[in-house]
Design brief:
Length: 174
């Protein structure tokens, strides 16, 4: 399995019938995450399409490898997969050990933080998730190049550009 269309079809089939927190077909989320990774090449786009497949379906890393997906793709997917009993903050710290996984998670975070999506959540959940995603961005963005972050969020969630600009100003030496 080497083409983007094959991986997209795999993701669509694996996530068929699933919906996200706001009731949208789940494939739309993984495609949005993948779109944000387009500037980084096909393998990261594939990782974006598959970033939740191990966590949310019966697919395993071994099965993905058996289907011919590269170790780079599968390793990034494994790195962003939630593990039972591992707190979210620890997961984020684990992700930043891999530059590929960091970029995938930045794109995932950007899409999950999109104002159009957040507006459809109940206020309490919206506030809780906004704080969670903001804290994750602090760690993720510190581990990535600003140009890469900007490339992703320009595609996935341009509303985060102001936050990135503020971060740049606070990190500049005085």
């Amino acid at each position: 399995m080497n083409s983007l269309s094959e991986v997209d079809a795999l993701a669509a089939e694996a996530h068929a019938g699933q919906v996200d927190k706001i009731g949208v077909p789940y494939i739309e989320h993984v495609r949005a995450v993948a779109a944000g990774l387009a500037p980084f090449g096909d393998e990261l786009v594939m990782a974006g399409l598959l970033h939740d497949i191990i966590e949310d379906t019966d697919w395993t890393a071994d099965r993905l490898r058996e289907e011919g997906l590269s170790n780079r793709v599968v390793s990034a997917v494994e790195a962003v997969t939630n593990q039972k009993g591992v707190p979210y903050e620890e997961k984020i710290r684990r992700i930043v050990a891999s530059s590929d996984a960091t970029l995938v998670k930045i794109s995932d975070n950007a899409h999950n933080s999109h104002p159009d999506r957040a507006a459809q959540l109940p206020e309490e959940k919206r506030a809780r998730l906004a704080a969670k995603y903001r804290a994750a961005r602090d760690v993720l963005w510190a581990a990535a190049d600003d140009r890469g972050i900007e490339a992703i969020i320009t595609i996935v969630n341009p509303s985060l550009l102001d936050e990135l600009q503020e971060r740049r100003h606070t990190e500049e030496p005085s």
